[in-house]
Amino acid sequence: MLAYLKKLLSHPLLRDLAIDDPRTTELRRRVIVEKPFLRRLYREWYDRLWAALPSGAGEVLEIGSGGGFLQEIHPEVITSECFPCAGVNRVIDAQALPFADGTLRGIVMVDVLHHIPDGEKFLSEASRCLRGGGGVLAVVEPGNKTGGRIVLTHFHHETFFPATAEM
User: Fold this and answer.
1) Dihedral, CA atoms, 148, 35, 116, 135, nearest 10 degrees?
2) Number of H helices, E strands in the chain
3) Is the dihedral of CA 123, 126, 131, 136 positive or negative?
4) Whole-model pTM over 0.85
5) What are the backbone angles phi and psi of residue 74, rounded to the nearest 5°?
6) Start-to-end Cα distance in the chain
7) The sheet that has 136-140: what strands, in order across it?
8) Is the Cβ–Cβ distance between 42 and 34 less than 8 Å?
9) Residues with Cβ < 8 Å from 22, sequence gap 6 or more?
10) Per-residue pLDDT in tens (0 to 9) along the chain, 167 residues
11) 3-class DSSP assignment, residue 22
12) DSSP conformation letters of 137-164
């Protein structure tokens, strides 16, 4: 029953694709960009995330960029994903960031943190890579209460790590 309901609720373009198929991510981006409500929502999130970043030296990394379009608004952002797909600059593991200590002025993420298996390891890496005395980790995350956990555990398309979501 749960599998039927999950399939029924999935977007028709994505229904029969594997989660790790790069086409799934590309189609997810298309859905976000083409649906006016979702595009406005993401734009609002991006504006808020960007406003939270400090000015000055250092690059900005977006983790989990696959389905989004932040680089259309801020071409200087380094986009990343945990697998190769269109629209990302780097394939990285958020738990082992390939940046030198103190080199990033910001890290931004939308709907990603709860998918990272070891949240403490990620936060340690983020802290290491962020510029001392002013680097910022800016995150938009879904609610992690009863309703949100039900959706993320049973209906979300990616693995959910409750312990990381609680951080």
Assistant:
1) -110
2) 7, 5
3) negative
4) no
5) -125, 85
6) 32
7) 90-91, 78-81, 59-63, 104-110, 136-140
8) no
9) 83, 84, 85, 86
10) 556 555 545 666 656 666 667 787 888 888 889 999 999 999 999 999 999 999 998 999 999 998 899 999 999 999 999 999 888 999 999 999 999 999 999 999 998 888 888 989 999 999 999 998 889 999 998 766 555 544 544 445 555 555 554 55
11) helix
12) EEEE----SHHHHHHHHHT-SS---HHH
The one-letter code for the residue type at 40 is R
Judging by beta carbons within 10 Å of its beta carbon (0-12, 13-18, 19+), is residue 53 exposed, middle or buried? buried
Distance CA 113, CA 51 (A): 20
Provide the residue type at 150 as one letter.
I
Which DSSP state fits 57? S
